[in-house]
């Protein structure tokens, strides 16, 4: 089990890593800067959301938000949320393992 210093260091690294990784991961699953990539996991998500909502994707749904972030990037609030979550999760993992 790691000490608090190690957990804090891991948390800081996780903060930056999460912010850098988020756009890469979104692009890899199909939420790109030019829209949802055909045949991707994102396309499957969009199809399922459309079927569930009678042909459209609901505003504010996970698919709509991820598509927006994939095309426009993360705003300040989203960047802060991702950074915080990455730091906390990495710090907790360092304490546990």
UniProtKB/TrEMBL annotation:
A Pfam family per the record: Ifi-6-16
GO biological process: intrinsic apoptotic signaling pathway; release of cytochrome c from mitochondria
Entry's localization field: Membrane
Membrane-protein topology: Multi-pass membrane protein
Assigned keywords, A-Z: Membrane, Transmembrane, Transmembrane helix
Xref: Gene3D superfamilies: 6.10.110.10
Listed transmembrane segments: 45-66, 78-96
Primary localisation category: membrane
GO annotation, cellular component aspect: mitochondrial membrane
Highest taxon in the source lineage: Eukaryota
InterPro entries: IFI6/IFI27-like, IFI6/IFI27-like_sf
Family: Belongs to the IFI6/IFI27 family.
Protein name in UniProt: Uncharacterized protein
Species this chain originates from: Poecilia mexicana
């Amino acid at each position: 089990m790691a000490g608090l210093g190690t957990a804090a260091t891991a948390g800081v690294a996780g903060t930056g890593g999460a912010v850098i990784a988020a756009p890469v991961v979104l692009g890899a699953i199909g939420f790109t800067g030019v829209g949802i990539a055909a045949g991707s996991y994102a396309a499957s998500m969009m199809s399922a959301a459309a079927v569930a909502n009678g042909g459209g994707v609901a505003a504010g749904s996970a698919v709509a938000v991820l598509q927006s972030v994939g095309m426009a990037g993360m705003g300040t609030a989203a960047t802060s949320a991702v950074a915080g979550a990455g730091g906390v999760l990495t710090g907790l993992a360092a304490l546990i393992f």
